[in-house]
Design goal:
45% helix; 150 residues
Length: 150
């Protein structure tokens, strides 16, 4: 999400002002921002970082649900330390993106739209539906268009 320069400067100033606050003032700022008491055991440097994050997340947008669940799984030790934790699946193409794939000598172009994926004058809900229409077989759409490792 793009932030206009005036708002970006105001956010930067607000975060910079946090650095000048003592621990009591940081606790008060936390209460004003979240409506809850700050955890009393947090040292100043951590409370400062949490407040700065919260201000930025409020202005720019917070983490999506899949990423939050991913981080919670990591934090609670839901897996063995040596086992890899898969990254959350996220929509990694924005509306307006043009995807190209050559299939059986024909170049296919798909435009990412707000409501789905546009190909050959039709709109599909998923890339997998587009890949199926192109090939006539079941495909993982992101993999077919080279957006995911095979």
């Amino acid at each position: 999400m793009a932030l206009d320069p005036m708002k970006a400067a105001a956010l930067e100033d607000e975060v910079a002002r946090l650095r000048d606050l003592d621990l009591t003032a940081l606790h008060a700022r936390w209460k004003a921002l979240t409506g809850r008491r700050a955890p009393p055991h947090l040292p100043k440097h951590l409370l400062l970082r949490l407040l700065a994050y919260r201000l930025q997340a409020d202005a720019l947008g917070d983490l999506d649900r899949a990423t939050i669940r991913f981080l919670e799984r990591l934090a609670t030790g839901g897996r063995k330390a040596s086992a890899p934790v898969p990254l959350p699946v996220r929509r990694f193409v924005r509306p307006g993106t043009l995807l190209r794939r050559e299939w059986q000598g024909i170049l296919h172009e798909v435009v990412v739209a707000d409501e789905g994926f546009s190909w050959n004058g039709a709109t599909y809900r998923s890339l997998s539906e587009v890949a199926r229409a192109i090939t006539g077989t079941r495909w993982n759409g992101p993999r077919f268009f080279g957006l995911r490792d095979g």
